Automatic annotation (TrEMBL):
<feature type="domain" description="Dihydroxy-acid/6-phosphogluconate dehydratase C-terminal">
    <location>
        <begin position="368"/>
        <end position="571"/>
    </location>
</feature>
<dbReference type="InterPro" id="IPR052352">
    <property type="entry name" value="Sugar_Degrad_Dehydratases"/>
</dbReference>
<dbReference type="GO" id="GO:0051536">
    <property type="term" value="F:iron-sulfur cluster binding"/>
</dbReference>
<dbReference type="InterPro" id="IPR056740">
    <property type="entry name" value="ILV_EDD_C"/>
</dbReference>
<dbReference type="InterPro" id="IPR042096">
    <property type="entry name" value="Dihydro-acid_dehy_C"/>
</dbReference>
<feature type="domain" description="Dihydroxy-acid/6-phosphogluconate dehydratase N-terminal">
    <location>
        <begin position="45"/>
        <end position="358"/>
    </location>
</feature>
<dbReference type="InterPro" id="IPR037237">
    <property type="entry name" value="IlvD/EDD_N"/>
</dbReference>
<dbReference type="InterPro" id="IPR000581">
    <property type="entry name" value="ILV_EDD_N"/>
</dbReference>
<keyword id="KW-0411">Iron-sulfur</keyword>
<feature type="region of interest" description="Disordered">
    <location>
        <begin position="484"/>
        <end position="503"/>
    </location>
</feature>
<feature type="compositionally biased region" description="Polar residues">
    <location>
        <begin position="490"/>
        <end position="503"/>
    </location>
</feature>
<dbReference type="GO" id="GO:0046872">
    <property type="term" value="F:metal ion binding"/>
</dbReference>
<dbReference type="Pfam" id="PF24877">
    <property type="entry name" value="ILV_EDD_C"/>
</dbReference>
<comment type="similarity">
    <text>Belongs to the IlvD/Edd family.</text>
</comment>
<keyword id="KW-0408">Iron</keyword>
<protein>
    <submittedName>
        <fullName>Dihydroxy-acid dehydratase</fullName>
        <ecNumber>4.2.1.9</ecNumber>
    </submittedName>
</protein>
<dbReference type="Pfam" id="PF00920">
    <property type="entry name" value="ILVD_EDD_N"/>
</dbReference>
Length: 592
């Protein structure tokens, strides 16, 4: 049966170029060298790109090298023509000086591919932290039908009959090492055991968070986010995603019809309910800005802060991805929010149906892992937004505030939620590691560890370094956490209630630039204030001393990134790129 697309396919401008048979011949000619036929390319079926993010240097996404065959099968069976192409790799654990450089680079390269090649729709393969926002940002810029497919988390990790979650086990074992309770070999064994299979982090780190957010936005099929990579359902999801990619191409169901302000507010709500990564903040803002949607600083408090934590999963809880998937995954969490009147169910999704329609009958199957809305793991579990004389914006992930931390810092009678601490300031992570055990700093439980020079400009790229642990001497006394503050980020797998993503950062003259070790910082979680108790005249004098030195750019991209990228409060995007949206409306001119 011949189908008529809702909007003419872009690929026709290449392979059936009106009045330019010379150009059609040129475009067709080289595709022939691997065996595809002219009839396939000229038959009028949509060409569906498969944005391949898997490679040997992106192990979290490597499963997509296998899943691509299932995506291809789905595309073919639905009447499309698949074309696979590589994305710029992103690997959080190994990329130096930080993988944050690569989100915007991957975005840029994907925009050029989707805009400049004969692609009518695209399956964006995701997994590791920044592959999801990079892909969705690019899909918004070009605005062709797009759908995301997560490669899935690893199987649950076990070490000596104890659940060990990827990433989270690193931070917890690092504290045990510092306290002298384990040696370095045991540290490595625990880390290795947390990664038992193909897939991305099996905790609710940034990878799981961002793929959950893709579901919340309506950019992936329901249930996609949490299926473990080795499960048979993962290949089945790949096949169904390929099929659906063809349908949205025919229907012209583009990101601009899905990514609304309400869908992004849904994403903020879901982030709270799942105990999502603090990295969700810059990524959600970045995706929203590229979609032409404003997310205000206040939105994190107005729409996310007062919601409960429903998912009992590390680092905020106990369990890992396998059990979360079996409990019902992201749809079960969204079902709870919808039933409580806390989710906008009218938002369109890539299924062609609304969120409310997708969520019918999705109640959780395991109430130890996904709790009822009215019996949550924790009340008021969203990101707390703070400001003060040290920064205009920062966030604190409240779902990981432990009882020990709350008792030590937030429970003084008459001053609940308020504490003061002596600042210990570090210029980057090397400085922290070199000096954290220096007895001359006299670090005790009344201190706050501060790291600067770790934002988009200072690092460059913004590094996951704010989740600093106390010195060994305190760990040996049983003090496992201190308040921490910084203008960088922290791992989504960290259980530290840090104040982070502080903007403006020290490298552009933010308040952390003039902060000094020994200053007292007052934090009031009730009013959302964080201030150094320093006289205005003294602040002015220190500002006159200039900004702390940061490393020089080491590559051309680092230099360009620094020149064009904004602050974490605004998503850390390439500011000039925000002006480009819906580029697919204009087909690029011929190349000869």
């Amino acid at each position: 049966m011949t189908r008529t697309p809702a909007r003419p396919f872009r690929s026709r401008e290449w392979f059936d170029a009106p009045g330019r048979s010379d150009m059609t011949a040129l475009y067709l000619e080289r595709f022939m060298n691997y065996g595809i036929t002219p009839d396939e390319l000229r038959c009028g079926k949509p060409i569906i790109g498969i944005a391949q993010s898997g490679s040997d240097i992106a192990p979290c996404n490597r499963i997509h090298l296998e899943l691509a065959d299932r995506i291809r099968a789905g595309i073919r069976d639905a009447g499309g023509i698949p074309m696979e192409f590589p994305m710029h790799p992103i690997f959080e654990n190994c990329r130096r000086p930080t993988a944050a450089l690569d989100r915007n680079l991957s975005y840029m390269t994907l925009v050029e591919i989707l805009n400049g090649y004969p692609i009518d729709g695209v399956v964006i393969t995701t997994g590791c932290d920044k592959t999801t926002p990079a892909g969705i940002m690019a899909a918004s810029t070009v605005d062709i039908p797009a759908i995301t497919l997560n490669g899935g988390p690893m199987l649950d990790g076990w070490h000596e009959n104890e659940l060990v979650g990827s990433g989270t086990v690193i931070w917890r074992s690092r504290r045990l090492l510092g306290a002298g309770k384990i040696d370095e070999e045991e540290f490595l064994r625990r880390a290795a055991d947390s990664a038992p299979s193909a897939g991305h982090c099996n905790t609710m780190g940034t990878a799981s968070t961002m793929n959950a957010i893709s579901e919340a936005l309506g950019m992936s099929l329901p249930g996609n986010a949490a299926i473990p990579a080795p499960y048979r359902e993962r290949g089945q999801m790949a096949y169904e995603t390929g099929r659906r990619a063809v349908e949205i191409a025919y229907d012209d169901l583009r990101p601009s019809k899905i990514l609304t302000r309400e869908s992004f507010l849904n994403a903020i709500r879901v982030t709270t309910a799942i105990g999502g990564s603090s990295n969700a903040q810059p990524h959600i803002v970045a995706m929203a800005r590229h979609a032409g949607v404003e997310i205000r600083h206040e939105d994190w408090m107005e729409h996310g802060y007062d919601l409960p934590l429903l998912v009992n999963m590390q680092p905020a809880g106990k369990y890992l991805s396998e059990r979360f998937h079996r409990a019902g995954g992201v749809p079960a969490v969204m079902w709870e929010l919808l039933k409580a009147g806390k989710l906008d169910g009218g938002q369109m999704t890539v299924t062609g149906r609304t969120q409310a329609e997708n969520l019918e009958g999705r109640e959780a199957k395991d109430r130890e892992v996904i709790l009822p809305f009215d019996k949550p793991l924790k009340e008021r579990a969203g990101f707390l937004v703070l400001k003060g004389n040290l920064f205009d914006f920062a966030i604190m992930k409240t779902s990981v505030i432990s009882e020990e931390f709350r008792r030590r810092y937030l429970a003084e009678p008459g001053r609940e939620g308020i504490f003061e601490a002596r600042a210990i300031v570090f210029d980057g992570s090397d400085d922290y590691h070199h000096r954290i055990n220096d007895p001359g700093l006299d670090i005790d439980e009344h201190c706050i560890l501060v790291i600067r020079g770790s934002g988009p400009q200072g690092w460059p790229g913004s590094a996951e370094v704010v989740n600093m642990q106390p010195p060994d001497a305190l760990l040996q006394r049983g003090i496992t956490s201190l308040p921490t503050l910084g203008d960088g980020r922290q791992s989504g797998t960290s259980d530290s209630p840090s104040i982070l993503n502080a903007s403006p950062e020290s490298a552009v003259g933010g308040g952390l630039a003039w902060l000094r070790t020994g200053d007292t910082i007052r934090i009031d979680l009730n009013t959302g204030r964080c201030d150094a108790l320093v006289e205005e005249a003294e602040i002015a004098r220190r500002e006159g001393e200039g900004i702390p030195e940061t490393p020089a750019s080491n590559t051309p991209w680092e230099a360009l990134y620094r020149e064009k990228t904004g602050q974490l409060s605004e998503g850390g995007v390439l500011e000039f790129a925000i002006d480009y949206r819906g580029t697919s409306k204009k087909v690029p001119r011929h190349n000869h």
